[in-house]
Amino acid sequence: MRSSATAGLVVGVDTHRDTHTAALCDRAGQAMAVRQFRAGPDGYAAALAWARQEAGEAGLAWAIEGTRHYGLGLARYLTAAGEHVEEIDASKHAGKRRNGKSDAIDAVRAAREMLARPAAAQMRADGDREALRLLMCDRDNAVASAKTARTLLTSVIVTAPAAVREQLRNIPRDRRATVCASLTSPPGADRQTRVLYQTLARLGQRITTLARTAADLEKQIRALVEDMIPGLVAAEAGLGALTAAQLLLSYSHHGRIRSEAAFGMLSGTAPVPVSSGRTDRHRLNRLGDRQLNRALQVIAVARMRSHPPTQAYVQRRLAEGKTSREIRRCIKRYLARHLYRALRNQPGLELQRT
């Protein structure tokens, strides 16, 4: 498989649900041809045949938007065909304001963005990594849905008649859904009371079902994480199965993130320089993968609470005049560096193709 540096031409692709627009550009970023194809196996084959015919003897590199969304099917097809594929971020608003927006414009912009990059942005892996992503998405949805149902259950109890409210208000929150799930309307009750008890029972059953689903998914996530990085969760203080899963989703596979510094930027833990003239300072990095940043935050807080070396570090930095927030940011930067090296030493994270 050729690299983008050795390819003679670049194909930028703007992807949508029904159609993909491809723009063939030279190494200077000038559009040579633009064509639209249907999204699907026939369209993928037509796009590859068209690009190869237009390129002739020149090699190709593909810059595709949405390689984990609408562009995933095309990216998988091209990768299986031996083509070099890089993922490109969605169109930036500044470019839209200056140059307008169309599928053709976005396709050319994708090609130019790839040409301007100092290093390639590899696609995230399929295989175990994709299975882990699906489990995490399913679990997050179950947790969020259960939270919404708990909020609604509390609201229904607050507005219920006094007798029902007094019956349920003193039950601990972790048992309230289970109790409500078994409620039945009193004999001879009016319609409002019957509907109230039915609503409470349905919400209680929904919450308990979602809680069981989330617990089952966490077991699968824990087992898959242990298969992918055996022993790492147990070896690292503050690292749980869910935070380790997020690390794996962001890291993906060996070679995707070129250095520890790049992982720091991806996680949003590397301070951004904002120096000018005689001013020399840095600001907080609010970009990058915010889910990865949140995972590092969870690990940092856990270590600050129960990890003696981290607690000693906190006390030393407090004595130097640092605030708790500044110390936590330093710990997150250290964790990004440390965990990147730990992942890089895991033999089971080689790139998988499906």
Oligomer: single chain
The tally of helices reads: 14
Measure the end-to-end span: 16 Å
User: In what range is the share of β-strand residues?
Assistant: 5-15%
Please list the strands of the largest sheet in the order they lie side by side: 3-2-1-4-5
SSE blueprint and pairings:
Elements: E1 9-15, E2 19-25, E3 31-38, H1 41-55, E4 60-65, H2 72-80, E5 84-88, H3 93-99, H4 103-116, H5 128-158, H6 162-169, H7 173-181, H8 191-228, H9 232-235, H10 241-251, H11 260-266, E6 272-273, E7 282-283, H12 290-306, H13 308-319, H14 324-344
Parallel strand pairs: 1-4, 4-5
Antiparallel strand pairs: 1-2, 2-3, 6-7
Helix pairs in contact: 1-2, 5-8, 5-10, 7-8, 8-10, 10-12, 11-14, 12-13, 12-14, 13-14
What are the key terms here?
354 residues, alpha/beta, two-stranded antiparallel ribbon, 10% strand
